[in-house]
Request: fold
Amino acid sequence: MTSCDLLVIARWMLPIAPENCAFDNYALAITDGEIVDLGVAEEVQARVSPSETLSLTDHIVLPGLINAHGHAAMTLPRGAGEDQSLQAWLSDTIWPLEAKHVNADFVRLGTEVALAEMIASGTTTFSDMYFFPEDCADLVATVGMRAQVCFPVIEMSNVWSDGVVDGLHKGLALYDHYRHHERIDIAFGPHSAYTVSAANLEKVAMYSNEIDAQVQIHMHENAEEVHEAQALHGHTWIQALDEIGLLGPNLQTVHMTHVSDEDLATIASSRTSVIHCPVSNLKLASGYAHVDKYIEANVQVGLGTDGAASNNTLDLFHEAHTASLIAKHENRDPTAGNARDTLRMATLGGAQALGLERKVGSLEIGKQADFIAIDTNSLNLMPHYDPFAALVHGNAGRNVSHSYVRGEALLADRSHTSIDISALTEKVRQWQITAV
Amino acid sequence: MTSCDLLVIARWMLPIAPENCAFDNYALAITDGEIVDLGVAEEVQARVSPSETLSLTDHIVLPGLINAHGHAAMTLPRGAGEDQSLQAWLSDTIWPLEAKHVNADFVRLGTEVALAEMIASGTTTFSDMYFFPEDCADLVATVGMRAQVCFPVIEMSNVWSDGVVDGLHKGLALYDHYRHHERIDIAFGPHSAYTVSAANLEKVAMYSNEIDAQVQIHMHENAEEVHEAQALHGHTWIQALDEIGLLGPNLQTVHMTHVSDEDLATIASSRTSVIHCPVSNLKLASGYAHVDKYIEANVQVGLGTDGAASNNTLDLFHEAHTASLIAKHENRDPTAGNARDTLRMATLGGAQALGLERKVGSLEIGKQADFIAIDTNSLNLMPHYDPFAALVHGNAGRNVSHSYVRGEALLADRSHTSIDISALTEKVRQWQITAV
Reply:
């Protein structure tokens, strides 16, 4: 018998790797935040002597979900100025609200709401791109989640940085600070090719290559962006990034709704990743990212909610459900966007897209013990034939009972362990009374 | 001071009529299941002397949602045989499962799950179309919900009826039985124009006209249905129903995804209603019903989940959210499918489509006291700018705290009052062990 910190026994387990497997009465053993054993419950129980046992008798256990794109602090403008055109929404609501309110406190409060909501709905790893990334990273470190924190690279002077040079300086300091952190990776977050100059994108390419860091960028979000690039520059932004040398396994391109076959081939051959944000794309009428084509071309595809202001929740199960529905609709094929492929995109796909697949995205020996449990004794999941379908088509975000990162509980029996929800609720209420 | 049974004080109230209004600190007074007073809380409190008061200090109160199309008992095959083509799903999964299992007990159990799920997510009125409508109606009467129960009109002999004549006979007996019931309306449920003969649809038209009852029928669900009708008969099913004399204010046509301008004009001039089921349409890749065109033509449009087997939840807030997203996407316009219009479709629109607008669909003096409350102290609704956006874009089905029909609580502080959930859970588990 080997001793271990925690033994988790699950009625059903979906490790994601190997693909499409749902195991009955399975267990995983954890030591020092790592999965050290995994298998049929009786057999694992015979092999390990745990300090603690978590019995999840009516639950589906799977890797924690990976929300591969978002702006966590934007929970605070959630629901402000709805149902407007993108330009009106940005000009009349979001930008004035940000100009008036965004500071480090705003980011801490909005990010804490986001962490609480993501933990409660099954996300254990997320990617962020917003001002004051130091505060986001610090909060993530304290709360116990896992994150890729992208520091903003923006031409103009802004609340956080005095333009690109200052932003890169602060971002690289942040990168150094978290270089050896178990749960936090710092990445470059140039907003987009149409807001950051080619010269500055070249700087991002140079620095990120030098330190082998990830880069996340909004790309081909809607038809206008692509048409404007062609009209003004005679090429698409994907072609521009190819020339700059920014494409590659370290680049994550977010949205990618309007992409020609030629650009798709460029993305695939450069092994650039894609992040799919279907709810935001639908809500802003941006178009549809043809996920099936990317996957067919062996592009790594992750799933993201985008910011709460354009979603409006941070529930990645809901995002997965929408991803499945819109794939069926757009392909005119009810077998498209199936539950297994969609759940893979929300877990291992996201890990691969963010370059985190050696640590997370599946339940395998040697990986970090980031997992969640869904209580199947829930009205919307009754009865229960196929755990993949239950999770994706059953919209299981509301049925998450447990959420663990590195073997530590962040949510136990639906209660947060590292965030005081009633204090947080009161803080949001007070912020809204004084600020808006 | 007038005495009343119950006074409900709400932080926000959305009566739906008048349109687009969100009132702060509003109250409604109820006597004998009817709304007898409504207005600014302080003023109503000065006018009435209630036996009981319900203070909803952080809540949005609105009319109970109306799920205008579904097959309640089909919660039992929820999640069975997913991601298949429509034909394979029906032939390989649904029809064999129904042939093996459907009887009165199946209908009672599946319907009870559906009622519990709908009550918990804010639906107070629903339309049903399934075998053994007597059992559905009986359960609705006991549990306290409101329903339009459509008895099936099917050519072939089936588990419930020996074809059309027997079905009409049983259905009319059921109609007589509930003729004076406060919460239950019996309607005709011919499955579709392609499964019921013209002669039998004429019978439905004749009988329903005679007793002034509603008729609900699946119509133009996908392109194949429309193309086949034109290939085999040289006309669309809408043209066929027009000739038969079935179109009119008592007819509710469900799905309506592929409809020509000419057919739309026929629907509008006959004052036929439309029921929109976007999740089912997306999941089965059936197409999109152009809701905005129907509404522009003054067609009454309700919203429905369809059966749980093709959704997979019965959460009408989720349906409303999807309706909004797909409207924006299909119209390439982020201002389409706005939260106000969508919430109207889920309440008063449904009431009008089902012919129930004198009783329910809005909070007005003289209408039945069917209302729900949403707790805004919920992570996915924080902060809170616009109650319409919070409900629709915030996916508020998980945040329903109270659900009342005719002034009686069916859900209080998130607990069911008329369904024993743990007993129901155990019954479903036992059914699945023995049956599947």
About this structure: Chain A has two domains: 2-63+369-416, 65-353. Chain A touches chain B through 68 residues (CB under 8 Å).
